[in-house]
Amino acid sequence: MALTFDDGPTQYTAALLTTLEHCHALATFFLIGPHALQYRVDALREYRDGDAIGDHTVTHPHLPRLAMPRIEHQIEAAARQIASITGHRPVLFRPPFGAWNARVSEAARRAGMAVVMWNVDPRDWKHHDPALVDRAVLARVHPGAIVVLHDRYATTPPAVPHLIGALKARGYDLVTVPQLFTTSGGVHSGVVYHHGPSP
Fold first, then answer.
1. Of 35, 56, 60, 150, which residue is the catalytic one?
2. Mean pLDDT of the chain
3. Taking the domains of the chain in order of start, what are their residue ranges?
4. CATH classification of 2-193, choosing from 3.20.20.370, 2.60.40.760, 3.40.50.150, 3.40.50.970?
5. By 3-state DSSP, what share of the chain in percent is helix, strand and coil, each rounded to 5?
6. What is the pLDDT of residues 3-26, one digit of tens each?
7. Could you say which of 6, 7, 124, 151 is catalytic?
8. Fewer beta carbons within 10 Å, N or C terminal of the chain?
9. Is 128 a residue of the active site?
10. Could you tell me the CA-to-CA distances from 194 to 17, 78, 107 in Å, in that order?
């Protein structure tokens, strides 16, 4: 299964990365371009740790409301900002608010990115309670799950140590989104994925 974190890096990301390192767990981070530039050290640390890094636009807009050129700009500009730090263009894209339509998936395809959604949402943006977040994930997780979390809230990183321990106790390997698809041919540009394959 894959833990994913949106909207970073932020002042809370470093603590989250320390937890992942100590637990020998990987995650996937969907970065807002200017945030990556502001927290370059953390974005580079994610990359060097082996975490997967995806594109989460420049200003976090509701993309289906935008014209195609503006959608493409949101994706492409963020990709350039991220690549200026890691040296690699992202191949994963997550639309803000999980809002996408045919234009959004086509813009991602043109940018060479797969669209990565999720199928487990503990709503950490609403429930600022680590124990509640943990319970919500553990109640819904299954093999191949993609969990959406956010490293923009102070209450999310404290949920992660117990969550990882509980998931490992259930026998889960915590992998990146690309690793989730290694046995099924990988991810493909423009395709929208809500979960990984079940073993």
1. 150
2. 97
3. 2-193
4. 3.20.20.370
5. 45, 15, 40
6. 999 999 999 999 999 999 999 999
7. 6
8. C
9. no
10. 24, 22, 18
